[in-house]
Design brief:
This protein is α/β, with parallel strands linked by helices and 387 residues long. It folds into two domains: 6-14 and 258-381, Aspartate Aminotransferase, domain 1, CATH 3.90.1150; 18-256, Type I PLP-dependent aspartate aminotransferase-like (Major domain) (Aspartate Aminotransferase, domain 2, 3-Layer(aba) Sandwich), CATH 3.40.640. It has helices at 18-28, 39-59, 72-86, 100-108, 126-138, 160-168, 241-257, 260-277, 304-313, 333-337, 342-345, 359-381; strands spanning 6-7, 66-69, 91-95, 112-116, 143-148, 173-177, 196-200, 211-215, 282-283, 294-298, 316-317, 349-352. It has a seven-stranded mixed β-sheet with strand order 2-8-7-6-5-3-4, sandwiched between helices. Strands 9-10-12 form a three-stranded antiparallel β-sheet. It is globular and about 70 Å long. Bound molecules: pyridoxal-5'-phosphate. Residues 71-73, 99, 101, 148, 152, 177, 179-180, 200, 211, 323 line the site of pyridoxal-5'-phosphate.
Length: 387
């Protein structure tokens, strides 16, 4: 990525860490299959081994609990579709604020699905979850509860400890989508009453195309991809040693490179700057605890598509929320679940900072955004000239 552009879309994908790039390129120099007995196979296997140690360490997991996959989306499908069948649960309980991956996997599982609403502040409705679990307990049924640690659009940090206490007190299972949390704070997987957790390399300074599912030993049968028996038989398919090497290096160096305090300071400057430019700006999720690297907001009447294209022309890359494969600005199920009007929600912009973000990036964003606002205000006054 050239430094002439300002990249503030780290929640969609972070900038690759130099250490990760180096590890990937070094692994690409070795040909072969990591399952082969010969020296090339053994070298690649050793690379995967080291990466497993690093990922396990950063996630607070045992090495045996780490299954490498092709993405967090795959890990999520494995946990929800594979997990709900292997664990023979009667129901999937899922929050309305999940990423599309868990929501669609739950639908595809063929299980009965109960959705837990979000409160207006963006937090999962704990009272509704409690009721749902009570009902299941009374009828002797079990559920796989699927929740996210940090929301990818708003940055809201969910009350996972409370959810763990509720689920852990019963005989239900808990899956956590920790994609936006991995590397940013201690996940402590092994010691928490969490059965499965999904993480992704490219959200933490690693490459796209590799993720992991963390699983406790009692969920051993959770698998959807069958074949040669790689990853302890839990996810067959020849492992990509270069991508896994990049994931391992990122897991080791991302927590050191990600200066949460500095990044939160930069995001505060953005918040202050946009409030100075437009006092009617609406910042989503303000009432809840949020990750300090992201701000999700809308200016009434300013269309996200117009703002995103204008910012892009100014060399500033941000997004409107979840990265959608169509590349279009679609409606946000997360903001709608928080009761935000669809009209305001379609104007949302998400600015997410990362390990290499600087004060200059923030200044460039604010200068560019001021230009977009001026053009928009001019367009409102002169409707014939607005394109
Ligand atoms: N879950 C969350 C919260 C995400 O933010 C994302 C990516 O945006 C995913 C899951 C999917 O991750 P991946 O791109 O590795 O499939």
């Amino acid at each position: 990525m050239t430094k002439t552009s300002v990249y503030l879309d780290h929640n969609a994908s972070t900038v690759l860490l130099p250490q990760a790039k180096e590890a990937i390129l070094a692994a690409f120099d070795i040909s072969g299959n990591p399952s082969s007995i010969h020296k090339y196979g053994r070298s690649l296997n050793a690379i995967i081994d080291e990466a497993r140690t690093n990922v396990a360490k950063t996630a607070g997991a045992k090495r045996s609990e780490v299954i490498f996959t092709g993405s967090a989306t795959e890990s999520i499908s494995q946990a929800i579709i594979g997990g709900s069948n292997a664990l023979e649960v009667d129901q999937i309980i899922i929050s309305a604020g999940e990423h599309a991956a868990p929501l669609k996997a739950a639908k595809a599982s063929g299980k009965d699905v109960e959705e837990i609403f979000l409160l207006e502040n963006g937090l999962i409705d704990i009272a509704q979850l409690k009721d749902a679990l009570l009902k299941l307990d009374e009828s002797g049924k079990t559920a796989l509860v699927c929740m996210h640690e940090v929301n990818n659009e708003t940055g809201i940090i969910q009350p996972i400890k409370q959810i763990e206490t509720l689920v852990g007190a019963t005989r239900h299972f808990l899956f956590i989508d920790a994609v936006q949390a991995f590397g940013k704070f201690d996940l402590d997987f092994s010691s928490r009453p969490v059965d499965m957790m999904a993480i992704s390399a490219h959200k933490a300074g690693g490459p796209v195309g590799v993720g992991a599912l963390l699983v406790k030993s009692h969920c051993d049968e959770v698998r959807i991809i069958h074949g040669g028996g790689q990853e302890q038989g839990r996810r067959s398919g020849t492992q990509s040693a270069p991508l896994i090497a990049g994931f391992g290096a990122a897991a080791k160096y991302f927590p050191i490179s990600y200066d949460a305090k500095k990044i939160a300071g930069l995001v505060s400057s953005i918040e202050e700057g946009i409030k100075n430019l437009r006092s009617d700006v609406v910042i989503f999720g303000q009432e809840a605890e949020r990750m300090g690297n992201v701000i999700n907001f809308a200016v009434p009447e300013l269309k996200a598509h117009t703002a995103l294209m204008g910012l892009d022309l100014e060399g500033v890359c941000v997004s409107s929320g979840s990265a959608c494969s169509s590349g279009k600005v679609t409606y946000s199920h997360v903001l709608c679940a928080m009761g935000i009007s669809p009209k305001l929600a379609t104007g949302r912009l998400r600015v997410s900072l990362g390990w290499n973000s600087t004060k200059q990036d923030v200044e460039a964003f604010l200068i560019a955004f001021e230009k977009i606002l001026k053009r928009h205000e001019y367009g409102l006054k002169n409707p014939a000239q607005e394109n």
